[in-house]
Amino acid sequence: MAIPFLPRRDDNQSAATEQATEQATEQATAQAAEAEATGIEVDEVEGSDDSGDSGEQRNPLDETITELGATEPETAESSQASDDDAAALGESIEDGGPGGGFALGVSDAPVDAVTDAIAVDLDEPSEQGPPPADEDSTHRDVDISMTDPAVGEPVPVTTPSPEEPSEQVVPPLGVEVLGNLRSQRERDVLRPGGGQQVARPARVIALANQKGGVGKTTTTINLGAALAELGSRVLLVDIDPQGSLGVGLGADPQSLERTVYNLLLTDGTAVDDVLIETNVENLHLLPANIDLAAAELLLVQEVAREQALRRVIERVQYRYDFILIDCPPSLGLLTINGLTAADSVIVPLEAEYFALRGMSLLMQTLEKVQARLNPRLELQGIVATMFDGRTLHAREVLERVRSAFGDTVFKTTVNKTIRFAEAPVAGEPILTYRPHSKGSDAYRDLAREVLAREPSS
User: Fold this and answer.
1) Which of 8, 89, 167, 174 minimizes the number of CB atoms within 10 Å of its CB?
2) Which domains does the chain have, with CATH numbers?
3) How does pLDDT run across 241-290, given as a tens digit for each residue?
């Protein structure tokens, strides 16, 4: 084991240094002999440093390692000790003098005892064997840095570990932790109570017409109920501030704490906090109330304001087969949001002149949305509602629509019946209120046509 050299002394102090070293060597030799005879440990003798600048004596060995794996950085002076000092230290080491001690910071044992102890620790396995398996023990290399007198650089001395430590296996995150790391959108889509996932995203259909009183809300409720009756999972989304969609399904919009308004304008609102399960199996509702009337003003300040509803629908699009959007009777920002979020549009059209006159303006709006905001948007069909075949005017209007739009017009026509006025009072679709009425049969036929027009993929 190499020991750091003492700092170089001036030439005029060489004689004094050599004499001090010889005296220290003789004293250490006498103490070692006495300790061997009596069995009493002898403290290490500190070497003297007659530099002249300090009155304290300093042993360079005190600057060595104080614990396993720690190394004192070497200086240029310590690596350039004189030959006289090296010879003096060599004699001191052989005789167990002050240079022979190895400071471990543990005990003051004599040089030979400490050296033997280190040799045993490094070269011989422990008699006690490896630690028990249940103890948290880690084998690591022991790095004892010593100085190579030839180059003056630390030479690491390592002992091989009995066995390589196994890599720590990090257990997978728990469900609760993973839930905390998910974004709000992921929590909506994968929420345990959110229902079974479908293989493809839902078909989003907007029911729009800027003309009021043409049967948009009635068609949304009953078409959704008919699709659910045929086995599809359906979500109805109300973006009309009147809140008629919720009223028609038995909800009181004014008593609701959270509505579509919160989903559009309040960060952190989960879809399931707004979602209402209706009395019809597989038919769910996102309701609205008069608060939504302020949304158009507030959305003006938002970035990508036309896509606010699309971002909401994307959270749950894999939980449903169809999502039907009940648009307000206008061509404002809420209707534009509905058209931007939709894959297709169904236009309920009353068979009368004013409704027909507004079709040209609606078609212009659809073309602009398709060109600027939603390239996938298409006109899925036009359905004649509130039709009274007994009047010549109704038959003429329907004929003109079919001649203008061709096969885009559904073959099914929804005739007037008092049952449509009675069903909202009961808070349920006509399919459950009067399941065998002509109105129920009409919406079942319409649902089959919608399914028939769906892409095969």
Assistant:
1) 167
2) 11-125+140-157 (no CATH), 179-452 (3.40.50.300)
3) 999 999 999 999 889 999 999 999 988 899 999 999 999 999 999 999 99
